[in-house]
Design a protein that fits this description.
By secondary structure, this protein is α+β, with helices and mostly antiparallel strands. It has a domain of 91 residues. Helix content is 39%, strand content 18%. Strands 1, 2, 3, 4, 5, 6, 7, 8, 9 and 10 form a ten-stranded mixed beta sheet that branches. Helix 7 runs parallel beside helix 13.
Length: 385
């Protein structure tokens, strides 16, 4: 009988453990550690995310019950208090760095086969309880944090993520995000900043966003619009020369406003610096923002980051970045098999057989030997040879 690893081992084996060890050394998270290594901390928390555990106590008790199988993972049983202390006190930077490495490596591979890049920018709110009030209080009785993401809908993965408290403005984080010259960026009203727009315009980027209700173009010319369609108007002009407090507006290039009526009947005023594409193309680009909302929903529901296992900022950061790492690992594992075409179904099978001796490439039919050289050809472009 041929050797099989457990499913969790196959999922985690996409991590470069030598590089992970380098990150651990750089952040010093194993310094003076006697029992729980950072690797075991990561594996235990990843197990909790993948198994759908409802809390740290459930994660620890279930993880410890698989004692003999943990040897294959390079991990050991953990104690509740020890894991809780590690999440609270050991730098989350090691997991943030691991996420960035995995994200960059997978995205480079995808972008070799895709054309011009379109990126979506948004943030999602994470609700926290009063135990996190010391660092995460947003208003009276409300505590929270945010995850800010630049998302590639064609690759179906984030290319940038940052964690902040909820009182940090979205545009403040966006100004620190890397800008890819020539790319298209789509974002909503929370990123209304003329100076930032000018930076992207100077880099040759196309921007697609919404206009605030009190912002109006000085129209210089109208473009033809077919009557009776969803596009109501298409105008070219300039933004106001002055901002609030009479500050000079640096974004003085020609801009374009496309008004479109969506399915609900609401009229959107979409702003872009693209003066040549069709109005429908601009409207369709803005509509793609829904993809990042679906990504946030998927992460929260399937990887259980609505409920946090710790209350300190470091513990919450640790859980968020490990959840994002697990998402990327699941995507990579999904791409390496052919039997389950739908990611959500694949994730549920992984959860069901997480500690079973099964080949991750044949979860539906464990007795079938997967072809070693066959590569998956999915409908999406996320997976590339």
């Amino acid at each position: 009988m041929r050797h099989r690893n457990i499913v969790l081992h196959n999922v985690l084996n996409q991590v470069s453990w030598p590089r992970f060890k380098e990150k651990v050394a750089r952040h010093g998270t194993d310094k003076h550690v006697r029992s729980l290594t950072t690797k075991t901390q990561f594996i235990a928390m990843a197990y909790g995310q993948l198994s759908g555990a409802k809390g740290l106590r459930e994660t620890v008790s279930q993880f410890r019950s698989h004692g003999p199988k943990l040897d294959q993972l390079g991990a050991k049983p953990v104690a509740l208090s020890t894991l809780g202390d590690a999440n609270a006190k050991r730098s989350s930077g090691v997991f943030e760095d691991l996420f960035k490495d995995l994200m960059a490596a997978s995205h480079r591979r995808v972008r070799q086969a895709l054309g011009g890049a379109t990126y979506l920018i948004d943030s999602t709110h994470l609700h926290l309880n009063e135990h996190s009030a010391k660092w995460a209080r947003y208003s009276a009785g409300v505590c929270g944090a945010k995850v800010h993401v630049v998302y590639d809908p064609d690759a179906d993965q984030p290319i940038y993520a940052a964690f902040t408290t909820a009182n940090v403005n979205d545009i403040t984080v966006a100004q620190q995000m890397p800008i890819e010259p020539g790319a298209t960026y789509v974002f909503d009203l929370g990123y209304h900043d003329y100076g930032w727009w000018k930076t992207m315009d100077d880099a040759g980027c196309r921007i697609v966003t919404r206009l605030k209700s009190n912002t109006h173009l000085t129209v210089s010319r109208d473009r033809f619009v077919w009557p009776g369609g969803p596009i109501l108007s298409d105008q070219i002009g300039t933004l106001p020369a002055r901002q609030a407090r009479n500050r000079h507006n640096p974004m003085q290039v020609e801009m374009r406003e496309v008004q479109v009526r969506i399915e609900t009947g609401k009229v959107l005023r979409i702003l872009t610096n693209d003066l040549t594409s069709s109005a429908q193309t601009i409207a369709d680009l803005y509509k793609r923002r829904w993809a990042i909302e679906l990504h946030f929903r998927w992460i929260k529901q399937e990887l259980k980051i609505k409920k946090f296992f710790g209350v300190s900022e470091n513990a919450v950061r640790t859980q968020v970045y490990i959840a994002l790492i697990v998402f990327l690992l699941l995507r990579l594992a999904h791409c390496a098999q052919t039997s389950v075409p739908v990611l959500l179904e694949f994730v549920r099978l992984v959860r069901t057989h997480l500690m079973s001796w099964r080949d991750v490439r044949a979860l539906e039919n464990p007795d079938e030997r997967p072809p070693p050289s066959q590569k998956r050809q999915p409908n999406s472009d996320w997976c590339v040879a």
